[in-house]
Amino acid sequence: MRAVLPDGTRVPDDLAFGCLLGVVDVTDCVPVAEAPAGVFTEGPWCWLLARPRLLATPIPYRGAQSLFDVPEGFVKNPMGHLLAGFN
Q1: Are 62 and 71 spatial neighbours (Cβ–Cβ below 8 Å)?
Q2: Could you tell me the pTM of the whole model?
Q3: Per residue in 42-52, pLDDT tens?
Q4: Do residues 68 and 45 share a domain?
Q5: Are residues 49 and 75 in the same domain?
Q6: In 10 A of CB 20, how many CB atoms?
Q7: Residue 77 burial by CB count (10 A; 0-12/13-18/19+): exposed, middle or buried?
Q8: How far apart are the first and last CA of the chain?
Q9: Mean pLDDT confidence for 6-17
Q10: Is 18 left (phi over 0), alpha (psi -120 to 50) or beta?
């Protein structure tokens, strides 16, 4: 059975987990009342994002809930960090 979001959007069966899929530009952080309405608009604050770019290949990475630090230099050389065991 396929999962469905509150707005009726079907979640892909092959949704990737445990990896970096792409990058975005964070353009602002606004109170939820000032954010565009959407299925993922929850408060009290919302990040406004622009220019989503999909990576050619997902990069395995263990994330965390909330904000977390990424090792210095990871963005410029992610595979070097993963091979060195820094994830």
Answers
A1: no
A2: 0.62
A3: 889 999 999 98
A4: no
A5: no
A6: 18
A7: exposed
A8: 33
A9: 80
A10: left
Domain span including residue 2: 1-7+21-56
Q: How many domains does the chain have?
A: 2
How are the residues of the chain apportioned to helix, strand and coil, as percentages rounded to the nearest 5?
10, 35, 55
Alpha-carbon distance of 68 to 61, in angstroms, equals 12
- Give the pair of three-digit tokens for residue 38: 């959407």
Q: Are 28 and 45 in contact (CB under 8 A)?
A: no
Distance of CA 60 to the CA centre of its chain: 13
> Is 33 a domain residue?
yes
Instruction: For residue 30, give both structure tokens.
Output: 């606004």
Report DSSP letters for 19-53, one per residue: EEEEEEEEEEEEEGGGSPP-TT--SSEEEEEEEEE
